[in-house]
TrEMBL record:
CDD domains: SF2_C_RHA (cd18791). Residues 226-410 form the Helicase C-terminal domain. This is RNA helicase. Gene3D superfamilies: 1.20.120.1080, P-loop containing nucleotide triphosphate hydrolases. It comes from the Eukaryota. GO terms for molecular function: 3'-5' RNA helicase activity; ATP binding; hydrolase activity; RNA binding. It catalyses: ATP + H2O = ADP + phosphate + H(+). Belongs to the DEAD box helicase family. DEAH subfamily. PANTHER family: ATP-DEPENDENT RNA HELICASE, ATP-DEPENDENT RNA HELICASE DHX40-RELATED. It is an enzyme of class 3 (hydrolase). Residues 28-199 form the Helicase ATP-binding domain. Keywords: ATP-binding, Helicase, Hydrolase, mRNA processing, Nucleotide-binding. Residues 688-708 have a biased composition (Basic and acidic residues).
Length: 708
């Protein structure tokens, strides 16, 4: 038996000895007996991987599918792999997964792991979830935006606010799973439903503070070096046991791994280690966009005498449990999408974790024996910079897409919706305003025909708006690849080595120039086309320092977006417009329709100012092809921002004022209170019909002007 398959069968036996296994029958009964059930237990007790199997074996799938949601796509994929393996099924048959742009299910699938966003989309098409007998909302303690919305929606349909499960042949059972936190609150929210607690067994973890990171480093500084130093100290100074290092994202994880490789004793990083007596370190990165076969390695036990060191994002805090971890090195930071009120946009930021998050991280060291957690930050940092609890995503990010989904589901009163934690009204109003600006809702807050088209695309509403504009001109071939490219991470490789970095930069500059220069959107579009058309796309990527895996995903996403568009074009009467100009202008004009909320104008020197009312002073990011050409520019649109001590614009394209002239007033002339008051009123159907026909007229007038 090979080493790895021996480990595999061992792990299947371990499944039987997980804390959850003794409660198997009681759990199945509890699910059957209640509409809502909260299940809680320490991370690693077997909730995610085992409960769906129990329900399957009890035959509950015969009444309808068993769906399990995860806030993170990697978790959905990895867990589905694991469970299909444990059940000895082929992945994609009885057990499958679906995440945005990746559907691994078939007719035969009855146990389906998916992201919470996917289930939300399924509700759009099938509000009663008639295909399911059981829906499990997993990782509810993470408080992801989509899980929170699902909680509210299911409460609304099943707790009698609406008509209940009328129209369904069998009742739906909802299980909400959460690590120990907040279960009373969840139960109260769900009408006082029972809470099933799986008693855990955990061992003490001693935590210590460091001195390298203090309150002055709150904006995230050189914590990578410190984390590496501490991890190496653990390796050389502590008894056997694996290490789990928490960092925030791909690039710094790769950097940390590089530093560790450099400094740690070199061993063969695969499992065919020749000299097993070497006390070595097996260094394994773990982040969301990593290939799944590499992720699988994380779970394998290291060879005898070798210490495993996993360098991970927050994904290893609760979603994935790695056995054998005895030491934690905690950077104290996490990457989070936050609505930034200074610039009025959602920005991916590195911020200090909360104290409860830090405790959760530390707890990962105490699963099988006593452990140690090394916090690289000081006690003062803990006191002054860390909140008690993590703020739920619904209270800190843009609600635009979610509000559109709710409205399409007939939830007109988005302010009175049953939220587990209410978002600030300001965020709801902001979402309504954006939807109105994109013509997705009308003045009365009702979804327009365009809005119904927009909700079908799993993209940012602005990008969808631009795509639909292009489709109405019959030039979707320009926007589909772009939308796909903007939906994947890290197209361009940024090597850590300075010499290689120079070489990569040179290649990237050459690509931008060849694409016409001075338009980052066009560069992305061209890279997509060149790669696709080349004889050997992977060699082309290597040659140009482009991530082949990212491009492969982009190809697949483009196909899927194209399918959605075709389906919509067949199903609904699609707007048609004519344009008589050159292709570059057409491209940029379509972009303006979706990105006029992201317009900046040059003020002085190299400084630009945003036009959304915030008037933020911004700069072009050095990675842009427009960098150092600022003086030649006047107006531009951008895809996103990066906030450090300065605010930088990334993925930028110059435009002409005339193209946004008629759109810009929309940024200011919206009466958000009108939108939201209407949202709260009972809907008078007749009135709505009247205003809709007026609205339709206004919209067609608007689009005529657009073409002119
Ligand atoms: P919970 O959901 O309660 O946190 P899980 O069901 O995720 O617990 O984990 C139960 C056990 O299964 C853990 O010991 C974990 O290490 C193991 N496990 C989970 N996923 C995998 C995987 N992909 N490969 C190997 N082991 C796994
Ligand atoms: Mg779990």
């Amino acid at each position: 038996m090979s080493k790895s398959s021996k480990c595999e069968s061992q792990r299947c036996d371990e499944a039987k000895s997980l804390p959850i296994s003794r409660h198997r029958d009681a759990l199945v009964r509890a699910v059957e007996d209640h509409v809502f059930l909260v299940v809680t237990g320490e991370t690693g007790s077997g909730k995610t991987t085992q409960l769906p199997q129990y329900l399957y074996r009890a035959g509950l799938w015969k009444a309808g599918n068993i769906g399990i949601t995860q806030p993170r796509r990697v978790a959905a994929i990895t867990v589905a792999q694991r469970v299909s393996h444990e059940m000895r099924f082929t992945l994609g048959k009885e057990v499958g997964y679906q995440v945005r742009f990746d559907d691994c299910t078939s007719e035969a699938t009855v146990v389906k792991y998916m992201t919470d966003g996917c289930l939300l989309r399924e509700i759009l098409a099938d509000p009663l979830l008639s295909k399911y007998s059981i829906v499990i909302l997993d990782e509810a303690h993470e408080r992801s935006l989509n899980t929170d919305i699902l909680l509210g929606l299911l409460k609304k349909t099943l707790c009698g606010v609406d008509k209940g499960s009328e129209g369904r042949s069998v009742p739906l059972h909802v299980v909400v799973m959460s690590a120990t936190l907040e279960t009373d609150k969840l139960s109260t929210f769900l009408g006082g439903c029972p809470v099933f607690t799986i008693p855990g067994r955990t061992f003490p973890v001693t935590s210590s503070f460091g001195s390298a990171i203090g309150p002055k480093d709150v904006n995230g500084s050189s914590y990578v070096n410190e984390v590496v130093r501490v991890a190496l100290n653990v390796h050389s100074g502590e008894l056997a046991g694996d290490i789990l290092v928490f960092l925030t994202g791909q690039s710094e994880i790769e950097k940390a791994c590089d530093l560790l490789y450099e400094k740690a004793e070199r061993i063969d990083y695969r499992y065919d280690v020749q000299d097993q007596t070497v006390e070595g370190l097996l260094i394994l990165p773990l982040y969301g966009s990593m290939p799944t076969d590499q992720q699988r390695q994380i779970f394998l036990a290291p060879p005898t005498g070798i210490r495993k060191c996993v360098v991970a994002t927050n994904i290893a805090a609760t979603s994935l449990t790695i056995d054998g971890i005895k030491y934690i090195v905690d950077s104290g930071f996490v990457k989070q999408l936050n609505h930034n009120s200074r610039v009025g946009m959602d920005i991916l930021e590195v911020v200090p974790i909360s104290k409860s998050e830090a405790q959760q991280r530390a707890g990962r060291a105490g699963r099988t024996s006593a452990g140690k957690c090394f916090r690289i930050y000081s006690n003062e940092f803990w006191e002054k910079c860390m909140l008690e609890y993590t703020v739920p995503e619904i209270q800190r990010t843009s609600l635009t897409a979610v509000v559109l989904t709710l409205k399409c589901l007939g939830v007109h009163d988005v302010i009175g919706f049953p939220y587990l934690d209410r978002p600030e009204e300001r965020l709801i109003l902001e979402a309504l305003k954006q939807l109105y600006q994109f013509d997705a809702i009308d003045r009365r807050g009702r979804v327009t025909r365009l809005g119904e088209l927009m909700v079908e695309f799993p993209l940012h509403p602005g990008l969808t708006r631009a795509l639909l504009k292009a489709a109405s001109f019959g030039c979707e071939d320009l926007l589909l690849p772009l939308a796909a490219m903007l939906s994947v991470e890290n197209i361009f490789i940024r090597p850590g080595h300075p010499e290689k970095q120079k070489e990569a930069d040179k290649k990237h500059r050459r690509l931008a120039a060849k694409a016409g220069g001075m338009n980052d959107f066009a560069t992305l579009l061209s890279v997509f086309q060149w790669c696709k058309d080349s004889d050997s796309p992977s060699a082309w990527c290597k040659e140009n320092w482009v991530h082949w895996r990212a491009l492969k995903s982009a190809f697949s996403i483009e196909t899927q977006l194209c399918e959605i568009l075709l389906r919509l074009k067949q199903k609904r009467d699609f707007p048609v417009e004519v344009f008589t100009g050159n292709k570059s202008e057409l491209f940029r004009r379509c972009l303006c329709t979706g990105y006029f909320t992201n317009v900046a104008r040059r003020s002085v020197g190299k400084t630009f100012s945003t036009m959304d009312g915030h008037g933020t002073a911004v700069h072009v990011h050095p990675s842009s092809s427009l960098f150092e050409h600022e003086a030649e520019l006047d107006w531009l649109i951008f895809h996103d921002m990066m906030v450090t001590s300065r605010v930088y614009l990334r993925t930028v394209c110059p435009i002409r004022y005339e193209w946004v002239k008629e759109l810009l007033p929309k940024l200011h002339q919206v009466d958000v209170y009108e939108l939201s008051n209407i949202a709260r009123e009972e809907v008078d159907e007749e009135e709505v019909a009247k205003s809709e026909s007026k609205e339709a007229k206004r919209l067609t007038e608007g689009s005529d002007k657009d073409v002119a």
